[in-house]
Amino acid sequence: MGLALASEGNEKEATPFFERAVRVQPDSAEAHENLGTNLLRLKKIAASEQEFKRAAVLKPADYTTNHALGEFYLSRGSAPDAIPYLQKAQQASPDSYANGRDLVLAEIESGRLADAENQIAALMRVKDGGELHELLAEVKEGQKDYMAAGKEYQRAAQIDPSENNIFAWGEELIRHRTPQPATEVLNRGAKLYPQSARLQIALGIALLMREFYGPAVDAFCHAVDLDPQDPRPYSFLAGIYAISPSRAAEVSQRLGQLVRIQPRNARARYYYAMSLWKSVRMETQATDLSTVESLLRAATNLDPRFAEAHFQLGVLYSEEKHDSEALAEFQKAVDLDPNLADAHYRLGQLLLRRGDTVRGEKELDISRHLHTRQLDEREKLNSEILRFVYTEPHSSAASSVSH
């Protein structure tokens, strides 16, 4: 009766029946497992753990009881606690692929890479597939054997050319700065999986690393069109503006779309403002600078600590000869971010022009010092690349774009 109710999603109603079963037959490991599983679904974690432990005591060498307790700890993010029970389950059933795979995952997460490698070798005798080669690639990556890791990612994609395996292989090539083979792998993957936004982003990154800016813009724009909610391609499109003006209209269109999707996102408005301003300077698009000013001002209102937006407002006011407004924005920018070298420079120049020599020279000295250790735009994009390969999409659309 408890199982029937639980199968219909009525875990709360099922609980009294599972509890009665335990009282009727307290030495039944299965009864304790069923109660533990039901309690886990009800998020009664401590009580669930106790039931799984009682089952394991009753049947210490049983596959099902040990596997259930191992899975419980894995689901709670406690990989080290899961390992002993998953090991016992594997000893009870050495040919269990599912338990063995979970044991590998727990060992990798716990840093027990040699054990994971041995377990993978044992599983390959049961079922050699792309998943195991991808896991072995993770092990080799952790052991800093990058050449072996690359070969295993390649083998995984050859055995099972899934979107995930191709992405993992291309990502590995990107991570270790081999963009030409990455481009070839990701190009093939994008043709096999034309609806994959993350393959398009990875392809754009590989092209960007090769300084093929036009095709990179095309790939990022395609990624935006496939998944407008993923913030990562927008940040790359905004970064490319600092290096290459190609495809300006396409980029502005996508950045404007981000503003519509996330109207409360300060960084989105900043990106769009900068793209429109670039178009004005290149004379590729008729845009009133008041629109740029409005977007930048909106960005500072949405995020009062947005130093770069204050700085660009200062630049805009300075170019329009509104020195008092420019001075206030430059001062605000350096107050919010003392490492903003260009803001110190602009502030220094403006102070000198207004006759404040002491403060002006001080700001210029700070600017010179910061410039000697500041990343150029390409290095900033490299930082974005590394952030991409180590983070999952959709972790937080707003935070990923705005930080």
What does the model show?
The protein has helices at 2-7, 11-24, 29-41, 45-58, 63-75, 79-92, 97-109, 113-124, 130-142, 146-159, 163-175, 179-192, 197-209, 213-226, 232-240, 248-261, 266-282, 289-302, 307-319, 323-336, 341-353, 357-371, 377-389, 397-402. It has 403 residues and is mainly α. α2 runs antiparallel to α3. It starts with a helix and ends with a helix.
Identify the notable features of this structure and list them briefly.
mainly alpha, 24 helices, 76% helix, disordered C terminus
Taking the alpha carbons of the first and last residues, their distance comes to: 52 Å
Largest sheet: none
Q: What value does the average pLDDT take?
A: 88
Beta-strand content estimate: under 5%
Radius of gyration: 28 Å
SSE class: mainly alpha
Shape: elongated
The number of distinct β-strands equals 0
Given as residue ranges, the uncertain stretches (5+ residues, pLDDT < 50) are 392-403
Helix content: over 70%
Order of helices and strands: HHHHHHHHHHHHHHHHHHHHHHHH
Total of DSSP H or I helical runs spanning 4+ residues? 24
Quick structural gist:
The chain is mainly alpha-helical. It has helices at 2-7, 11-24, 29-41, 45-58, 63-75, 79-92, 97-109, 113-124, 130-142, 146-159, 163-175, 179-192, 197-209, 213-226, 232-240, 248-261, 266-282, 289-302, 307-319, 323-336, 341-353, 357-371, 377-389, 397-402. The protein contains 24 helices and no strands.
